[in-house]
Specification:
1 helix, mainly beta, 120 residues
């Protein structure tokens, strides 16, 4: 009897697709990246300095491109030059646009003016 009940529960249990992640970069998400660049001109060390960069990535808003609802991702980079660490340099922010469906995330390609698959 217990087997029949267990079998019925399994057969009539609702089946939902399982996803590791529902939405790539949901609205409000943010993350940071950091790295180092080393510059030098000769192996003797005539010009050698360390440059540290930090990227701040933030999903800022929902928008529409080519009648497709997508999310705008702002990437801001700050660079700290080892020769003058008191003056960090902030570059102009870059913007990326993403949307996803059931199994694929798409990124907008500005040169082709269309969305391309980022990952499946």
């Amino acid at each position: 009897m217990k087997r029949k009940i267990a079998l019925l529960l399994v057969l009539f249990a609702p089946v939902y697709p399982l996803y590791v992640q529902d939405t790539f970069a949901p609205l409000g998400a943010e993350w940071w990246y950091q790295g180092d660049n080393y510059h030098f001109t000769t192996w003797q060390g005539d010009l050698y300095f360390n440059e540290t960069w930090t990227d701040h990535v933030q999903v800022t808003k929902d928008t529409l491109i080519n009648y497709i609802s997508c999310r705008e991702v702002k990437v801001s980079q700050t660079t700290l030059d080892g020769r003058d660490p008191d003056y960090p340099v902030e570059s102009e922010p870059r913007y990326w646009y993403f949307y996803d469906n059931r199994d694929t995330t798409f990124v907008y390609n500005g040169h082709l003016q269309r969305f391309m698959p980022l990952y499946i």
